[in-house]
Amino acid sequence: MAAKALSFVVGDYVVYPKHGVGRVVELQSQEIAGAKLELYVLRFEKERMTLRVPTNKAESVGMRKLSSNAQMADALATLKGKPKVKRTMWSRRAQEYEAKINSGDLVSIAEVVRDLFRAEDQPEQSYSERQIFEAATSRLARELAAMEAVDEPAAQVKILDILRAAAAIHNK
């Protein structure tokens, strides 16, 4: 247990890479297999899920505080960029997109949102494209909502407005 534990307190919003934004609801002590373990108890409201993370493993699993305003600004600026569509097989791109979403890195998630966004005048997305787009948008919106103290739908509207404005510029 020599690893330096990140310090989160009850009530903090945190980002767990595979699940997105959750809230520390409790700090617990449990004895498991004869070892005393300190745990963060995280609650993910949208998924109705509770997760217990050993305090000494929080950093190694990628758990972090909410992004800084500068990191969020970078992510929102990424949304304004020109979409990069690779000409590789969808299965390979889907794996790359999932890896970016699960990385927990805000700019990587914004890249997925930007690349999979379709304006009203563009061709329809496939079902799996839409699923990945919605997962990435939701992940980005939850962090934006927690940072700006708004609800997730309001954050999604802001993200979609940025994407529509960018699409209008890039699709001329």
UniProtKB/TrEMBL annotation:
Ranges of residues in domain CarD-like/TRCF RNAP-interacting: 7-117
InterPro entries: CarD-like/TRCF_RID, CarD-like/TRCF_RID_sf, CarD-like_C, CarD-like_regulator, CarD_C
Domain of life the protein comes from: Bacteria
Any coiled-coil regions, as ranges: none
Protein name (record): CarD family transcriptional regulator
Source species of the chain: Sphingomonas natans
Lineage, uppermost ranks: Bacteria, Pseudomonadati, Pseudomonadota, Alphaproteobacteria, Sphingomonadales
